Every structure is written in structure tokens, then in C-alpha cells.
Amino acid sequence: MNKILIANRGEIAVRIIRACTELGIDSVSIYSEADADSLHRKIATESYCVGPKLSKDSYLDMISIITIAKKSGCDAIHPGYGFLAENSDFAEMCEASNLIFIGPMHETISLMGVKDVAKDTMKKAGVPTVPGSDGVVASIEDAKQTASDIGYPVIIKASYGGGGKGIRVARTEEELVQNYKMTEQEAESAFGNKSLYIEKYIENFRHIEIQVMGDYHGNVIHLGERDCTVQRRMQKLVEEAPSPILSEEKRSEMGETAVRAAKSIDYIGAGTIEFIYDLNDDRFYFMEMNTRIQVEHPVTEMVTGIDLVKMQIKVARREAIPYRQEDIRIEGHAIEFRINAENPYKNFMPSAGTITDFIVPGGYGVRLDTACYAGYRIPPYYDSMIAKLITFADTREEAIRTAKRALGEYIIGGIDTTIPFHSNLLDNEAFRANDYNTNFLLEHDVMK
């Protein structure tokens, strides 16, 4: 493998380019017209414009991306996260074009991409799943019957959903009827498929995910868990590893379950098994599988000392994972803060514009993954995340103190960001005491 095209933008494109450089592999970046001044264009070995400003005409244009990869002599394509990372058609097109898709097989992406099918697959593998409908519900009447059988509240989910979209909670039959129609419309608009399924809604839970890695030699390991409970509208804001809520026994059980799940589908590459951890019953249930590298992968890297992006590339080169499960050691504590170009004082209103000042934090235990710089213009066409601040220390308390200091040093001028939100979050007693669930931001207004 001599040359890799990175089918993405922003900080994850920069992250992958750096891994390629350290492995002695040439990198090819693509950029839209709106990203002409982007850092990922500047630091790649080669760079090509893939299309106009809108994602559908650029970063989602599969034919143009594969054409650039072939014409530039690439061996492989790394999709990063988002965009085409979990598009089974794209993975299949790469394979048909004799390009290595750095990720799982397209059949696996397809299998795990349909949420009700993925749930059934996990159930057959002996993985605990939340009580709910037996596959897709056929109609609103079918949904009513399922909700009556399992009891309210229930959660309505799009079979092809993801990223916090196509999900609504119903506490009564009236809400079920209303939200069923809204979710159906949203699913058809966002995913091109309006199929829905119903599950029991567990209210008092933590969002725990397990990082897994598989190779072509039949090896599968897990690299511990991440706690992603602090969310806004089902979008993760803060992630940490290890989870401060799990016992060692439960941690081991969840890890073993995740490996069993990955092995049941012959998983290859980096992936994440996401679980609902019920705080009332001390039980966990399969939520979904993400068949790609995650935004929050740096916290796992910090506590394991393993470069997950390099490992992805090595696995794609048919190298065996050089670790056994007993080799994986979780040491210290890491926390990641997603820095978004949004105004937390105005209901997180997006804030595009030109960055006038960009002073980054430093010191021991601080990592910053970003593609921003002073003078860079944030385009309004893509996701609002512009950086990830990660802190690492021996304990959670020390990692929080390091984060508080680092956030205080981090200056981004010219636009609004969520830095004040994260700084305030660290002063919240419930967060510091590890006494919260996924309703944290509904119960605590940290911007007051």
C-alpha cells in the first residue's frame, strides 16, 4: 500500500494524513470549492478538488472520488467517519475498482446499517438486546400493539437511522401516533427509507461503547470502553475513557460481549459496539454498531497507547493485529471535548465565519485534534465540529483539572464556540461527582 486517498475533510482528514506520513505512505486529499483553504488540502502529498460546496456534489460524490483515486494511482481509500464511511455501496464500488476500502467488508456495513437487522443479528449471537418489536413495525396499529405489550415509554427508531436522527420517544399512545408520523417522514427524507421499529425506552442509563478491532486472520480484540453519556439532542458532546461508572466485572463482561458480537459477523477493521447501560438494573443492552473509526477514538488511544488509525491501515494491508487481548492495558483517564462553531448562549446557534485568533492550549496531558488556524474561514455547509480537545492524566479528577486549565488557554476569535459550555460543565457538581445519565443537559443548565 503506497498511496491512500482520504475521502473526508477537516480534523479527521488531517488525522489520517498524519498517520499515512508516519507510515511512509503518500496521501491524496480531496476538497470542495468551499474547502480550498483547508488544512487537509495543504498537508497531503497531493490534493484535488472533488466538486462544489455542497456535500452531495463533493464529499458524497462516489464516482468522482473513485475517479480521483484511480487517476492519482491510489491503492486504497480511507473514509474517516461520516460522509461515506458507512455506505456499503461505496465500499463495494471501491472493491470493484480494485481499491482497498479501509474498513469492514461491504456486506458487514450493510448488515449493521439496518438497525432492526443488526439487532436481530446480535440477538442470535447471544448479545443482550432491548425488548421491542420483532423487526420493522408494519403500521401505526402494529406500533401501538408493540408499545402496549412492552409498556410505555417507548422509543421509535428509523431502521436506517444514525447520528441521532430518526429517533423519538413516546410516553403515551397519543405521543406515539404523533411521533410515529414525524419519525417516518424524517427517516424517508434523511435516509430514503421510512421503515421504523419500536423499543422499550430505558430512561436512567449511561451510553457506553466498546472499541473493537478485527483482522483478516480471524483475530478480534477490544480496547476498552468509552462513556459518551453527556449529549445534547442525542449528539455526543463529551467522551471519556474508561467509563467512571462501571465495575471491573461489568467492564470485563461488556468487553467480552463486544468481541463475541464482532466475531459473529467476521468483523474486520475498527468498529464500535454501542450499549445502553441501565443504571437501575446494572444491565446492558445492544444499541447499535458503528462500522468505522469514531470521532471519540483519541480517548481510547490515550489510555491504551495504541494508534487506532495506523492500526486500521495495517489491518487493511492484511497484517495481523500484534496484540492479544491480555496485552491490552487501560492506564490513566482521558476526556474528549468536542469544540463546535456554535454559540452556547444562544441555544447552540451555528457560527460560521473567519477565525481571527487561534491560540491553542498545551502542556503535559493535552492533545488537540483540529484542522483550524488563524485566518481560516469556517464554511457553513458542513458539521459544526472544528476541534477536539483531549486531556489525559492518572485519574479522572486530574484529567478534569487539566481540561479546565486547557480550556482556559484555548482562544478562538472571530466566531462563537462551545469552549464556554465545556468550561462551565467542568464546574458542575453532578458531572464532577459522576452522578448523571443521558438526561444530564435536560436537568442541568450549565450556561446559567
Automatic annotation (TrEMBL):
State the reactions this protein catalyses: N(6)-biotinyl-L-lysyl-[protein] + hydrogencarbonate + ATP = N(6)-carboxybiotinyl-L-lysyl-[protein] + ADP + phosphate + H(+)
PANTHER family, per this entry? Answer: BIOTIN CARBOXYLASE, CHLOROPLASTIC (PTHR48095:SF2), PYRUVATE CARBOXYLASE SUBUNIT A (PTHR48095)
> What's the Enzyme Commission number for this chain?
6.3.4.14
What the entry lists under SUPFAM superfamilies is as follows: Glutathione synthetase ATP-binding domain-like, PreATP-grasp domain, Rudiment single hybrid motif
Name of protein = Biotin carboxylase
Determine if Nucleotide-binding is one of this entry's keywords: yes
Domain ATP-grasp: where?
A: 119-317
Record pathway: Lipid metabolism; malonyl-CoA biosynthesis; malonyl-CoA from acetyl-CoA: step 1/1
Cleaved signal peptide residues? none
Q: What does the annotation say about its assembly with partners?
A: Acetyl-CoA carboxylase is a heterohexamer of biotin carboxyl carrier protein, biotin carboxylase and the two subunits of carboxyl transferase in a 2:2 complex.
- Biotin carboxylation domain residues: 1-446
- Gene Ontology MF annotations: ATP binding; biotin carboxylase activity; metal ion binding
**GO BP annotation list:** fatty acid biosynthetic process; malonyl-CoA biosynthetic process
Q: What does the UniProt keyword field contain?
A: ATP-binding, Biotin, Fatty acid biosynthesis, Fatty acid metabolism, Ligase, Lipid biosynthesis, Lipid metabolism, Magnesium, Metal-binding, Nucleotide-binding
Job of this protein: This protein is a component of the acetyl coenzyme A carboxylase complex; first, biotin carboxylase catalyzes the carboxylation of the carrier protein and then the transcarboxylase transfers the carboxyl group to form malonyl-CoA.
State the superkingdom. Bacteria
